[in-house]
Amino acid sequence: MSEPKPSEGDKPETVETNGPGPEAANEGTSGGAPGPAAGASEPLKAQAYVDPEIAAEAQLAAWEAERSDLTDRLMRAHAEMDNLRKRTEREKADTTKYAITRFAGDMLAVVDNLERALAALPKSEAMEPQTKALFEGVELTAQDLRKALERHSVVRIDALGAIFDPNFHQAVMEEENKEVATGTVVRVLQEGYRIGDRVLRPSMVAVARGGAKPVKAAAGAGGWPEQSGEAGSSRAKSASDDTTGDTGNDTGQTG
After folding, report:
1. Cα-flanking dihedrals φ and ψ of residue 138, to 5°?
2. Would you state the pLDDT for residue 29?
3. What's the rounded Cα separation, in Å, for the pair 225 and 206?
4. Residue 22 scores a pLDDT above 50
5. In the predicted model, is pLDDT for residue 149 greater than 50?
6. Domain check: are 84 and 71 in the same one?
């Protein structure tokens, strides 16, 4: 008798395994170095011991350095802002003080022409009434114009009798004169003017030569050269009176 064939339902089940087969196991054992055992942990690295007190001191030193740097930056920024404020105030004051420099320079030509007109016709009692009225009108106009300029800090430079100073004078000629020191201004050809602390126009002068050796001019009030003779004496007296008055005021405030 023939044996019955097994049906599809009676076939034996094939069991699959996730692990490596015998061949893979043989390869692992036969070739190369063996790998680490399953579940084994890596060795721990050695760490240097840090004293907490030393670490705290290092951190504190770092904070101190950072604070010093920030403080220095703050002080520098404050100083820069203070300098900027002062420079801005100074520039603003200069702009206000010297705003009319160009206009004042143009008005000096008008003053010169009025003074030339007065010099060409000296005032005398023999003048006709109309001529005398015209002369007085021109004279008053010149005075008012000079006063208007003075109100805006445009004042005349006193050159006559002073030692020549290239900062304030422009010498156009020399005159033989042994009665005064060499370099003394003996004649003013054109008046000079200043506005505040700046020279608006230097004085055109004639200086003496052939006299004694000139003495260096001493700076007067405001840094302007002192004059010799009566003009210098009166100017020095005025500066001395101002100083005395200021000293008295300071003494009164102290008391």
Report:
1. -65, -40
2. 46
3. 17
4. no
5. yes
6. yes
